[in-house]
Design brief:
Strand content: under 5%
Protein name: Kinesin light chain
Structural class: mainly alpha
CATH class of the largest domain: Mainly Alpha
Keywords: Repeat, TPR repeat
InterPro entries: TPR-like_helical_dom_sf (IPR011990)
Pfam family, one: TPR_12
Organism: Cylindrotheca closterium
Number of strands: 0
Shape: flat
Distance between the termini: 44 Å
CATH architecture of the largest domain: Alpha Horseshoe
CATH topology of the largest domain: Serine Threonine Protein Phosphatase 5, Tetratricopeptide repeat
Order of helices and strands: HHHHHH
Helix content: over 70%
Radius of gyration: 16 Å
């Protein structure tokens, strides 16, 4: 709501308070880790809206680690975290890093829901698009 009003600094301050509480309670169970991951993901989104892509990417990398630790390597939320990280890399024209994160997300999707699932097909197409973009930039 604060971000909708362009009050990014206020929104970031509130998120930081939430994140600090989550870090203090992190050992209390997976629910806290999920809230932490969501709060960090939201903060990264706000930072991207402000053009602070490097800061956002660093946070999204942490989100991937939290999801892997709390939910496991092959969880759909971990795949989603990798996809968000891939998009952050692409926004910075860091295509190789974006492709690597996208490949991880795709690997999880393929193993958990299969090649024929619409989400997997969507990720395959997005990944193919990234590969083509990298080839075009090199050509």
């Amino acid at each position: 709501m604060l971000a909708d009003q362009n009050r990014f600094d206020d929104a970031l301050q509130m998120l930081d308070k939430s994140i600090q509480v989550c870090y203090r309670l992190k050992g209390q169970g997976p629910c806290i880790k999920g809230i932490l991951a969501q709060s960090l993901d939201t903060k990264a989104g706000l930072l991207q809206l402000q053009g602070k892509f490097e800061d956002a990417t660093e946070i999204l990398y942490k989100v991937v680690g939290i999801q892997k630790e709390s939910l496991g390597e092959m969880h759909p939320a971990t795949a989603e975290a990798y996809e968000t990280l891939a998009n952050a890399y692409v926004l910075q024209e860091m295509l190789q890093d974006g492709i690597a994160a996208s490949a991880e997300a795709l690997k999880i999707r393929r193993r958990t829901i299969g090649d024929d699932h619409p989400d997997t097909k969507r990720r395959m197409e997005a990944h193919r698009s990234l590969l083509n973009r990298l080839l075009e930039n090199r050509g």
